Amino acid sequence: xxxxxRLAAILAADVAGYSRLMGADEDGTLAAVEELRERILLPKxxxxxxxxxxxxxxxFLFEFSSILAAMRFAIAVQLELNKWNMTRHAAxxxxxxxxxxxxxxxxxGEDLFGDAVNIAARLEAIADPxxxxxxxxxxxxxxxxxxxxxxxxxxxxxxxxxxxVRAYRVRSAAARRPVSAEAIKEPPPDDxxxxxxxxxxxxxxxxxxxxxxxxxxxxxxxxxVAQGISLGLQTLLVQLPNMFFVNACGHAGYRDATVTASQAxxxxxxxxxxxxxxxxxxxxxxVNVQVTDLKENTVKWASNYDRxxxxxxxxxxxxxxxxxxxxxxxxxxxxxxxxxxxxxDGSDSWEHFLRGINYFYRMTKADHAQAVPHFxxxxxxxxNSAIGPCYLSVMHFYAARRGWSSDANATxxxxxxxxxxxxxxxxxxxxxxxxxxxxxALEQHRHRDANRLCHIAVGYRAxxxxxxxxxxxxxxxIGEPKNxxxxxxxxxALRLAGPMPLELGALAxxxxxxxxxxxxxxxxxxxxxxxxxxxxxxVTRTSDFALRxxxxxxxxxxxxxxxxxxxxxxxxxVERQPxxxxxxxxxxxxxxQKVGLPD
Length: 599
What we know:
CATH class of the domain at 3-170: Alpha Beta
InterPro entries: A/G_cyclase (IPR001054), Adenylyl/Guanylyl_Cyclase_3/4 (IPR050697), Nucleotide_cyclase (IPR029787), TPR-like_helical_dom_sf (IPR011990)
Structural class: alpha/beta
GO biological process, one term: intracellular signal transduction
Number of strands: 14
Protein name: Guanylate cyclase domain-containing protein
Domain Guanylate cyclase: 9-124
GO molecular function: adenylate cyclase activity
Largest sheet: 8 strands, mixed
Radius of gyration: 25 Å
Number of helices: 23
Shape: globular
Helix content: 40-55%
């Protein structure tokens, strides 16, 4: 057979965790990989004039005539795969690792050989699930023809490749998780402070904070309109996987005009700020919005809108689109990931939504009680919209978990009822119901369901602290604490107002289970500082001290446990920890027994 050489861009792709997926569900995994090939890979290859020249079960090799086409193919596939995973009813998402290289290849029939192919395959092996690694040659050829944020991985010795290859991790190819594992830095060894708000956001996507919109109306009662519009924008922007979004809507100093945008966000390394003002006159509203580049101190985009309040949902969607366009953020399929306010109409819908969302985000027992009737009214008036059920599910979940209800079990049942209703509705489904059902499934020890639902929720809500924290908690309890740490860190980074005690407590558990006892103690103590009666944080800290054989400190910590809950029993505590296996429960029980806590 005749052979010859030509220049080609080679992309290698492999299903991450294939053996684990096959062990859990062989038939389902085989069917999913075949669907992936036929539904996503082959059509996308055609879109970018590429071809599949070799398939090896869970591995695929593609050829492209240009490196730019290959890179665009990689990004398109990862985004499409992210959307596809949302629709699948499987315990774990299907994720691809990709490697990209360019060079001379040996052509023999339809097959390709040579170092250019082998390097792409080796780069794929070191890529993150959902990510892409590229060679130095690929990076140079791409140049500035496509805007990419890359991380230099240094020179790598690749198997069966004679010389080391400099590799780069592309940090904007997919959006399963909006923050890298390094999004929140570890505290320096010589610094005892545990400052979780010191974040290191990469430049992989535009980082954006939305500040509270100022009420310019003559009446204070219009405050809910101003804040409701900014919070409504938040519900849209958290869906965008190509944007890193943090919420600053609660910044009272900025709302009261005592600080500027730059001062309000001085300690958060976000690049852009969304500012706005609202003036209401009867059924009319004027909204002024601008996006400020904090680094350059320039206005990136500004506009004003005069609308009827009945059209407030269309206005929020229009503003969100314009913000995304101003920051060159690609909208999947040309529109928002979900038409969040789809299905809402009627003269009083806007008031129920804006008032309800105002109360909801204040995160207090009294305000949640005020929010519930507004979303119940929306659910009744608009039975085909998921907006009311989504928010009702998470509000009842919070009430049950934070002790805001006299009957936690009944309230949790209400949360589950509304969440299940939300999942049956397409219009307005924003993923909150998936997070709630995932959390409930975890407590019921339905670990596969919990993992699947929480991954879907993050797919819907790329910048949502609640979705990421629930995914991180689930990953910790199914035996993946390193992934749990990453997602709980992401949740904390996304919550501009600072971490919540429950998130810190979950982070402490993940650190402990990963063997990082010092970091676990620091997280637990920060949670205790914020919530002095937070029993679980004391238990985690006590087990940390015992596991690192600091018995004196462990005993001191255990005394506080008994002062808070005199009838504390180790068996009761470990029984309600929803671990997938008994090994971690036994380890915790043994640690607590070492300090004399009652069985």
